[in-house]
Automatic annotation (TrEMBL):
Provenance organism: Mucilaginibacter arboris
BP term (GO), one: regulation of DNA-templated transcription
GO molecular function: ATP binding; sequence-specific DNA binding
Presence of the UniProt keyword Nucleotide-binding in the record: yes
Protein's recorded name: AAA domain-containing protein
Length: 421
């Protein structure tokens, strides 16, 4: 089959030489029974390639199973793969068929192969060499005909050197190595993939089409994508769901791309035809990154101050920021009631609210103002979350829920209406 046809059939996006080379190898090795070791970073497409190989092999009508060796406890992996006899170990009530029995005539994909225990490696080597295996707790030799495709995101040869992986098995599996390039090594595919994913997700969620300005495209392409295609797909989905503004700018993209501590994802232009433009843009990005970092520092600091009543000893930031912050907090502290919303999984969010004045004679017009360090959208979400939690905790009793939230019953009542709870 032609490479383009394969891409079409399996929904593979991209046209970089490294990707095409990988597809070419998969295409050639598919019709054979040779074991394949697929290497590549997490999210780069290893599992996709295992499907391609199976589907283009004469075993395509046979079973296919993907097993994550890193996710099965060491004590049960032998029994999962090779089955066990009745009473093979404590708790083994009945007998069990292993994958090498159920997948007979098909393909087994062994993901995270470097995590496989040494004992299991010995059994696997035997199956690969002779098609023979023995169930746990049995002495009878069984036969099977299974093709093995293994995958790893670490260097298995390192495991060989440190004695954690059998060298003979390594060579046996690695007859045909198939390397899936990380996304950062096929930059020309990034925007293509992004467009495909956003088109799919906006159709799925019926949201308006997503467009991206030139700066944001550059940022997308020059990011290092540690989570590869999976991460890109994820971000496309988030944008399709969350982004109100469907022209994505560099600034809005920054909220979705995690910042790397080394800072090596600072966008750099590949082609520097427009020199002036380049430096200007670069500075802009730098400013944006710095702003985001400052914002995060500031949030942490504020939370620390509120929680501990003092500046953390290790604070190394700008003293001016600190002083300003102190002034703000002192001013607010007199007048306002500081309230820290802390949600178990979410980042702490600080809201500063008006005091709740108890006055029985007058109807007070209490305005609830919330100053948010984050975007207001997430504040609303968190607010409504907190309110729901408080109501649930106090079994719907508004008075107690309001007390817990540090707001008046009236405010709570209004919020419930506003947020449609
Ligand atoms: N070239 C590609 N074109 C389109 N989607 C891809 C491509 N490569 C990977 N994907 C998608 O990215 C995600 C991660 O791929 P997967 O094969 O699970 O990665 P890995 O097994 O290396 O962690 C999947 O949703 C897969 O469909
Ligand atoms: Mg995977």
């Amino acid at each position: 089959m032609e490479i383009q046809e394969i891409k079409q059939r399996f929904g593979i996006i991209g046209n970089s030489p490294l990707l095409n080379r990988a597809i070419d190898i998969a295409n050639q090795v598919a019709p054979t029974d040779i074991s394949v070791l697929i290497t590549g970073e997490s999210g780069s497409g290893k599992e996709v390639f295992s499907h391609i190989i199976h589907q283009m092999s004469p075993r395509k009508h046979g079973p296919f199973i993907a097993v994550n060796c890193g996710a099965i406890p060491e004590g049960t992996i032998d029994s999962e793969l090779f089955g066990h006899e009745k009473g093979a170990y404590t708790g083994a009530i009945g007998e069990r068929k292993g994958y090498f029995e159920t997948v007979n005539g098909g393909t087994i994909f062994l993901d995270e192969i470097a995590e496989m225990p040494l004992g299991t490696q010995a059994r696997l080597l035997r199956v690969l060499e002779s098609g023979q295996y023995i169930k746990v707790g049995s002495s009878k030799v069984e036969k099977t005909n299974v093709r093995v495709i293994a995958a790893t995101n670490v260097d298995v040869y390192d495991a060989v050197k440190s004695g954690k992986f059998r060298e003979d098995l390594y060579y046996r599996l690695n007859t045909v190595p198939l390397r899936i390039p990380p996304l950062r090594d096929r930059k020309e595919d990034i925007y293509l993939l992004f467009r495909k994913f956003t088109a799919d997700f906006t159709a799925k969620y019926r949201s308006p089409p997503i467009q991206m300005n030139e700066e944001a495209q550059q940022m997308l392409v020059n990011y290092s994508w540690p989570g590869n295609v999976r991460q890109l797909k994820n971000i496309a989905e988030q944008l399709a769901v969350l982004e109100r503004d469907h022209m994505i700018t560099a600034q809005s993209l920054l909220q979705y791309i995690p910042q790397e501590s080394s800072g090596n994802n600072l966008p750099m232009r590949i082609n520097q035809q427009k020199k002036d433009d380049f430096s200007e843009r670069d500075i802009l990005y730098k400013v944006l990154f710095d702003m985001k970092r400052d914002m995060t520092d500031l949030k942490k600091l504020v939370v620390d101050i509120i929680e501990n009543g003092g500046v953390p000893a290790n604070y190394s930031g700008n003293p001016q920021v600190l002083n300003q912050l102190y002034r703000d907090i002192e001013v607010d502290g007199d007048r306002h009631h500081n309230h820290l919303h802390q949600n178990h999984q979410q980042e702490p969010t600080l809201t500063i609210q008006q005091p709740v004045v108890q006055n029985n004679n007058k109807e007070l017009n209490i305005t609830h103002e919330a100053q948010e360090v984050e975007e207001s959208l997430s504040l609303m979400e968190k607010e409504s979350d907190l309110i729901k939690k408080a109501l649930k905790k106090h079994k719907g009793k508004r008075k107690f829920a309001a007390q817990e939230l540090g707001i008046s019953e009236r405010t709570l009542y209004r919020k419930i209406k506003e947020l449609n709870l």
